[in-house]
Amino acid sequence: MLRIYNTLSKRVEEITTLEPGVVRMYTCGPTVYRYAHIGNLRTYLMADWIRRILEHGGYKVIHAKNITDVGHMRQEMLETGGDKVILAALAEGKTPEEIAQFYADTFHRDESKLNILPAHHFPWATDHVQEMIAVIERLFENGYAYQAGDNVYFDVSKFSDYGKLSGNVQAGLMEGVRSEVDPLKRDPRDFTLWKTAEPGREMKWDSPWGEGFPGWHIECSAMSTKYMGEQLDVHTGGVDNIFPHHEDEIAQSEAAFGKPFVRHWVHGQHLLADGVKMAKSAGNEFILDDLEQRGFDPMSFRYLCLTLRYRHRMNFTFSALKAAERALTSLRDRVWEWRNLPLLAKQPEEAEEWKARFTNAVNDDLDLPGGLGLTWATVRSGLPDQAKLSLLLDFDRILGLRLGDVPARYDLPGEIQSTVAERTGLRQQADYQRADELRSVISSHGYIVGDGMSETKVRPKTVMEKLGERWSTVSSSKEVESYLDRTPQLDFSFVVTANNYIDDVKRCAQSILRWSEDHEVELIVVDNGSIDGTSDWLEELQQRDSRVKVIHCDHVLGEGAAKNIGLKQSLGRTIVILDTSVEIEGDTLEPIERWLQDRSIGIVGPWGLKTDDLLHFHEEVQSGDADAMQAYCIAFRRDLLSTVGLMRETFRFYRNLDLDFSFQVRERNNRIVADGTLPMTRHEHRQWNALGEAERDQLSFKNFKRFYKKWGERSDLLVSSGEETHSH
Ligand code: AMP
Ligand code: ZN
How far away, in angstroms, is 219 Cα from ligand 2 center? Predict the structure, then answer.
């Protein structure tokens, strides 16, 4: 069952219900003389997630959301000096009803664009004035209301529990109600239940207290009672509703019906823009249309809201929205790909565990960021893709990202289909160059082509892709096609993995490009989840230097996986893996090529290591045979990979991965040779220096254990064990 923070008890509590299995839930809805901004929508999304989690957990939820078309409206009109839209509409001869209808329609449309489940009841305030009058009459009967002048007020002094929700006591209250300086009130905390209409007012109703209209809060007490009874299980709203609106709702309902009004009060924190609460009056509001006009998919906003708990303020930025859209697109791409797979006869057992973990997360005070994290963990897990797909669709019953609506096959125009088919033919004939040209053609028509292991996928570009504002990303080395069975096309492939430290990346990349002019080279940079601008710089570099190829990872992959991406994509006869702390200072390629002409040599590099016991690797070997080559620079013939294999991806941290790979190479009887004269320098290794000592030790030790477990007994592979291992 969902455990969630209850503003009333100020604790995270399990939701309990009056009637077993049924949750009565009320959400303070929109005021319909203006657009709902995306801050309002964040609050409705919160309610939607609560409802989905409860329904997913087997509860029947009865949900009501009011449409405020009177009362509140007037209050805000007074505060803001009239709404431009309403004034314009009135100038066009529209009635208040027409205006309310227009904004209510827009609100429903926005909710549906965000996949917010429609409430079962959308009561309009103006349709329930009789019910409001009835509650006010009860308040009179019970002695909680009084008439003064033309108005009816709630007598707060009679309700001893006043303040139990907001904690507002006398002093604080004064501030909360400061805007209402009404001499007719007996107590400044008293609030209006009914107001007599001023001359010329159109929206007014008959009542025992004369023609008038209801106060701001009474509609929620009256309508929730009508549709769900005198007691509610859950009531939601934004934090600004806590006082006075919800405090006053409690006073009215409990004074009228003599029962506790709501069990769980849930309040969503505000959406901010430029650091302040989003509000029309602050001039920092965005509506859903604004996002769409900028080319965003409304669902990206839903995704964005999933990335932060409801109890935190969220500062809205377009760059965050872009990141959300990117991530959502990448989820949809998976779904798209996996929908083409045959169904699994039986779900693997772990699937249940994943489901349980997901449910536990979201039930834990609406930890949707945790749920989203688990969604991605599922995507990256070793489960069969079909199982991942069915888990994703199951999670999406709560997330509500409409992942199930991603079509299995997009309806591609005929000409695109035939170009894709032609390209597939070219790829089968290994004419990758022309295939790539056709990729560009397809791309210029607004479609994205991706080559999977067995088939090619094509989907329409997102708007950001059309604008060229984003690059595609990968989440694992599995997604990257291996070119290793193709014949080499170039002399050298440099493989560099970059994770921030832009200056190092620049220095390394530029030195590679500067000193490779006499050769056919490519520089493959695996941008491993950089967030400091490195990605943009690399993207630019790729655009202006055709030798450069950048693969962006959508998060920080393990070092083994990141390096494998570069290795798989390389097309050079010789591969040089370089660390970004290294700077090349002369022609390294001639000597490397010369060394590797000796086919007994597997690896050459400037910084070799030796060991006697496989426990301590010491003395940097600068010439001759070594037991291992340090990752700063490792050069080898590309075809070596077909016998020794790729790097082990269990090595997430870079340390000792080089030892492991070196031993793979040694195991296949290849020599590792050091040449300290290769013209390159090592600079500070920032990744290492940025780590605390304890962290270093821990990460290094883990990797060392991995290494030692596999190679600890293999002292036969050491140079010191004799010359016979590399005698041919
Ligand atoms: P209103 O239309 O002003 O009554 O607001 C509708 C709902 O949106 C209420 O639950 C408010 O508490 C909530 N709300 C108002 N401003 C924001 C904001 N900037 N961020 C999140 N929710 C808000
Ligand atoms: Zn309300």
Answer: 7
Out of 19-33, 624-638, 684-698, least confident range: 684-698
Going from the Cα of 288 to the center of ligand 1, the distance in angstroms, rounded, reads: 14
Mean per-residue pLDDT, 34-50: 96
CA dihedral for 167, 169, 171, 172, sign (positive or negative): positive
Q: What is the mean pLDDT of the chain?
A: 89
Ligand having the closest approach to the CA of 222: 2
Judged by its nearest atom, the ligand closest to the C-alpha of residue 42 is: 1
Q: How far is CA 715 from CA 348, 489, 608, in A?
A: 41, 38, 17
Give me the CATH code for the 473-721 domain, please. Answer: 3.90.550.10
User: Does residue 334 have a pLDDT over 80?
Assistant: yes
Tell me how far apart the alpha carbons of residues 674 and 602 are, in angstroms, rounded to a whole number: 11
47 pocket-lining for ligand 1 (C-beta < 6 Å): no
Query: What's the helix, strand, coil split of the chain in %, to 5?
Result: 45, 20, 35
Residue ranges of the domains in the chain?
288-336+348-405, 414-470, 473-721
Comparing C-alpha atoms, which of 559, 676, 666, 523 is closest to residue 603? 666
- Best probe residue, ligand 1, of 217, 234, 240 (max atoms within 8 Å of C-beta): 240
Is 31 close to ligand 1, i.e. is its CB under 6 Å away? yes
Q: Is the CB of 270 under 6 A from ligand 1?
A: yes
Write down the pTM of the prediction: 0.66
pLDDT digits 0-9 by tens, 537-581: 998 888 778 788 899 986 678 899 999 999 999 999 999 999 999
Best residue among 40, 41, 309 to mutate for probing ligand 1, ranked by most atoms within 8 Å of CB = 40
